Amino acid sequence: MKRVPVLHWLATKGLPSRSPALALLAGLALLVASGSARADFKMYVYDDGVLSNTFSVASGDTINTEAFDTAHFHIGRVVAPGVELGIVAESNSPGSPSRSYINQLTYLATNRSSGLHTLTVAISDVGFTQPQTTTLILRSAVNVTWGTIGTGTSTSDTLSFTSFANTNNTQFDADVDPTTPGVVGTAASGSVRSTTLTLTSPGNVGTTAAANSPDVLFGQSPPGAPYSLTDMLTLTLAAGNGVEVNGTTNVFPLSPVPAPSSLVALATGLPLVGMLTWVYRRRYRLTVA
Predict the structure, then answer these.
(1) Which end of the chain has fewer CB atoms < 10 Å from its terminal CB, N or C?
(2) CA gyration radius for the chain?
């Protein structure tokens, strides 16, 4: 039987207020993936175009890197006493009748070296399906806080975010080649991409920005056949500068009319932050009690 991802369970059941055991189980489930499941949900992290880290869990699960370092960046911040979170990525494969998505949330990425450096995070999952419909909508959304949590920012700091669907259910297809992050190759058969969203810091610490892509229509043959979702986030930051960023790739059936894109970005990111912080805070208290 497929294990229900913790974040999906919390979203549907609500936060348990009187059961420490449930909180403990949620924390354990978030950290331990099923040993028998295929690791089809993957994340690649690059520093200046060089592969730094690879993470993988079962398809439709949650990746939590905790805090870690690359050659030029520190990723992560303290969210509870003794607890740091780095990059958290979520997939709801095989999706729901109303929406399929992958989401990546970086709690804090800081350039701890001199000069400009680039951090690229690409995530991909397979096996998404939708109701028997002839047309699907691909839409991406991203929001960012520049110069957060004791870091700086400048007008040289930039962000780009692109979403991809592949109707052949191919992971990291030619549009997102893990060996050449940030370079769009020849599109593989079945590949559909969103408009690349680009944001530039205004140079003021603690400012926020957001963007949503225009809708891209695509179809499956036959309707309901599985497809993959991939997205790629690229951050270029000057020395000492940092960001917190949330990027979401969404797929909706053409009917019913999907939620406004601004609500999608908000609804995907903020509950994820809140639920993960709650789970980790509860887990920490139970461990030391």
Answers:
(1) N
(2) 18
